[in-house]
Amino acid sequence: MSSKTTRSAKTVPRPYSGPSFQDVATADFKKPDRIESAAIRASARGEDCTFQIVGVCNQQTDTTVLCHLPDESHGMSRKADDLSSAYGCSACHDVIDGRVKHDWQPGEKDFYMRRAQNRTWRRLREKGLLIIKGAA
């Protein structure tokens, strides 16, 4: 830098010149049509819980339902897509939805939700309810 050019110590160049997070977050966004499947919902009946939250899971397959997880498709009076879901027992479902208080550690809830969703997708694929083109 030349002696004529001075830069404030607080000034940091921004490599990204696109819209800011705030611009994107507040932009008009039409939510896509909700993905629903009666077959996927019914497939939860009798399944093992995929959350298996330590100290919470009751492991009662007769209480397992398709639990919807938060995503961009949900909102006021609107559940998330059936793809954003996981098989869960009544106890894990209550904790995930916040009906029962749980002392979550940082990142723990996200870990359980992501793991349960992946486990559920694998089961749906085994049942032929989720087809991934090109997958073996």
From TrEMBL:
Segments of this protein annotated with the region Disordered: 1-25
Protein name as catalogued: DUF1364 family protein
